[in-house]
Amino acid sequence: MLELRNLRRSFGDVVALDGLSFEVAPGELCGFLGPNGAGKTTAMRCAVGVTAADAGEVRWRGQPIDLAVRRRTGYMPEERGLYPRMRVHEQLVYVARLRDVDAEVAARNADRWIDRLGIGERRDDPVEQLSLGNQQRVQLAAALVHDPELLILDEPFSGLDPLATDVMSEVLREQADAGVAVVFSSHQLDLVEDLCRTVAVVARGRLVLDGEVAALKAAGGRRLRVATDGDDDWTARLPAGAAVVSRRDATVTVALPPTLDPGAVLDVARRSGRLVDVHLDQPRLSELFRTAVADRPDLAAELTEVDR
To answer: How far is 213 from 211, CA to CA, in rounded Å?
Structure first.
């Protein structure tokens, strides 16, 4: 179990972490979410020992993080930590050797990850000659080449095209299925919602939401999305307990109380025009985030940066 316990970290007058705590179990794929400047990178740097916390602690399997644990940890920083003039395969072998991996095993692991991540044709190219997306793949390979038991990735999907995003997602699922504790940061809530079993949402260095995605969505109630070919003034006549949570183009999303029949809302909507689209589902993570900070005016300004 990776445990972040009451982490605090300030840089001058700027409070980056303000009592942040959450856990990630072995075999768990956890999305660490929040807007830019929320404290995600600082928390991850504290977790791998790059940055020292002012207070609090980070533990792995019940023990404080030490050098031995760091050697079993795969870390992917947001800023690429690669040697630009070193060739891809050579660099991966070098990184593995730094983690005390046997030379033959290191070479074999480097070959395996180069092939798995689809960069075999660039095997002997200097990293600086690769596209940003392929450099991101090399950076992931560098985090995996020593077969870590804990994987901490800072914005691993940044700059990736859809195909590379699919490959990255598959690799992270495979690692979690193999028993690795995986946590990665992102402000792409919809992507994380589809990929992760658990999430931890942070804003201004504080945890505002965490738990299993399915449980959080179930607790958030039902949402009825309705589009009509008329105007949306019908929402002023919603049944008691129903409330508009968002409007986008012709679609209105209405939160339903547990006992309300969705048909009652549709009856009202039909009075404005023909129903074009109807969808009943649970809230998205972006909606849950907004609910979590609704009573926190100090965090409200950050909402515009989330789920971009």
So the answer is: 6
User: Can you give the residue range of the structural domain that contains 7?
Assistant: 2-216
Structurally, the chain folds into a number of domains equal to 2
Answer yes or no: is 306 within a domain: no
pTM equals: 0.82
User: Which are the contacts of 165, defined by CB distance < 8 A and separation ≥ 6?
Assistant: 157, 191
Are 244 and 185 spatial neighbours (Cβ–Cβ below 8 Å)? no
Same domain, 149 and 230: no
Over residues 50-76, mean pLDDT: 92
Q: Higher-confidence residue: 153 or 301?
A: 153
Final residue of a domain: which of 164, 191, 216? 216
31 dihedral zone (left: phi>0; alpha: psi -120 to 50; beta)? beta
* Residue 306 vs residue 289, higher pLDDT: 289
3-class secondary-structure state, position 191: helix
Location of structure tokens 């399997």: 61
Give the rounded percent of residues in the chain with a pLDDT score beyond 90. 67
Give yes or no: residues 192 and 235 share one domain: no
8 A C-beta contact, residue 97 and residue 106: yes
pLDDT of amino acid 298: 54
